[in-house]
Structures are given as structure tokens and as C-alpha cells.
Amino acid sequence: MKSSSIKITSAIALLAAATATFAAGNPEKHRCPMGQTWVVENGIGKCKPLTIQAKSREPGASTQPARATSEAVRAPATPKPDFTIVAAKPMGAPGNYRVTVKNKGGAHYAEMVLWGTHQKKGGQSWGSAANIKTVFGAGEQKYIDVTFAPGDFARGDRVMFEVDYYKAIDESNESNNKFATNY
Predict the structure, then answer these.
(1) d(CA 42, CA 117)
(2) 30-42, pLDDT tens digit by residue?
(3) What structural domains does the chain harbor?
(4) Which of 150, 66, 158, 86 is nearest to 117 (CA)?
């Protein structure tokens, strides 16, 4: 016999011996139902359901699987709207402004109040409110036109805007609702 034939014959014999030993411990040839696996416990093989179990590292601690408690499982926070003023720019005649309002929050909202104040250099002030009845989707930005009366604006006057002026909306951030600029 050639050496290659001897090698092939000995490999087949070794494989047959290993297969016979393996098959003797598992006459069903490890055919477990779906969702089960072959397990050998105390020298006896059997099909058992699949599980994941981590053993405790503390000496004397239970080896039972840990169970989640109500304190460990928390519901995600409910998203809230978050209105902010991105910009306010004069448009055309004095006293006309286009205010850019954005809902930076994770929830939509259907109605809010935008309040504008024109404060003159001498301390006198005029207010103008816009009650916005439109849906602001989460992340949506819209333009709102505000007109002050009377329109006697002068250099150095201060114009201030505040969205959700009456704090009627439960927002995720209540500290970013104001915007001010000079005329």
C-alpha cells in the first residue's frame, strides 16, 4: 500500500471511531425540536429548552436567573414640544416683523401665543400678541408675522418676543422662549 492510501484509511478509521462514540451517547443523533438544544447532564443526554443564564460571581449567592424588577424597568419619557425663537427680522414698514419660531421638541402642538413688546428709549412700551392656531410638528419651523401699533420706531428701541408667553404649554425646556433685538 502506498503511504497516501494508509493515511486515508487511518483517517476514515479515526472518524468512524469518533462517530460511533458520539452516536452511542445520542441515539437520536441530536435531533431536538426547534427551540431546544442537546444537553448532557450527569452523563445523560437530553433535549432542553434554550435559556440564557449567568451565574453570580458572589460566593454563596443563588444561581437562579435574575429577574427584572419594576424599579429596573422604566418607561421612556413622554416627548414634549419645545418652542424657541430662531430669528426676528424687520419686514417692510417700521413695526412689521417676521418671527421664525421652531418646535425643537419631540411632540407636536396645535396652538400657542407669541407675544412681542416694543420698548422705546424713554421706557414707554407697546405690546402685540399673535395667537397662533396652527399645528407645529416635532422639529418644524414656521414664520409668524407680527405688527406693532403705533409704528413710530426709532433707532435704539428694543423689540422683544416671547413664545408661549402665558406658560400654558408643558415644554421640555422653558428657558429658551425669549428673543430680543434692537431696532
Answers:
(1) 83
(2) 678 877 888 888 8
(3) 3-49 (no CATH), 83-182 (2.60.40.10)
(4) 158
